[in-house]
């Protein structure tokens, strides 16, 4: 009598898909790669997730809810904008340079690794990055209202500086720039905010 097939662990499959997309980007992962990474037939992947694009969206959501949510947590939990942004940058470096894990940010890397053919995915990833920029600007607006920043501070320009830096850290980490070097640039990077602070 044949043994029963192993029960499909959807959460584990999603974690494996997340890591594959994180490592090689959206277009860099073919269905055959997903079959190999998840250890299940393509028909089962389609049955569980609908399509490669839907699986990718779920994988990004898993990333953002977990380790990729560091920026959201830092901006919400720290009492001052300075502490929030410094923590956000530090945790970005620590995540993006972890040994034995994909380097960089999954959302930034997914777009950078090869041209994406799906307009819907391109737009969606762009919205993700724009939302992160907005969250930084919004945190600086709160700091301005609270009197942490000098009157007249251009919080949009300042937010753009730190969003660009955050996304750039991902590219640098993917290019092999080490943790110590990336951590060392946080102090000079904070100078812009210190100049604007009361």
Automatic annotation (TrEMBL):
The keyword Calcium does not apply. Gene3D superfamilies: Homeodomain-like, Tetracycline Repressor, domain 2. PROSITE patterns: HTH_TETR_2. Coiled coil: none annotated. InterPro entries: Homeodomain-like_sf, HTH_TetR, Tet_transcr_reg_TetR-rel_C_sf. Residues 7-67 form the HTH tetR-type domain. Residues 30-49 bind DNA. It comes from the Bacteria. One of its GO terms (molecular function) is DNA binding. Keywords: DNA-binding, Transcription, Transcription regulation. This is TetR family transcriptional regulator. It comes from Rugamonas rivuli.
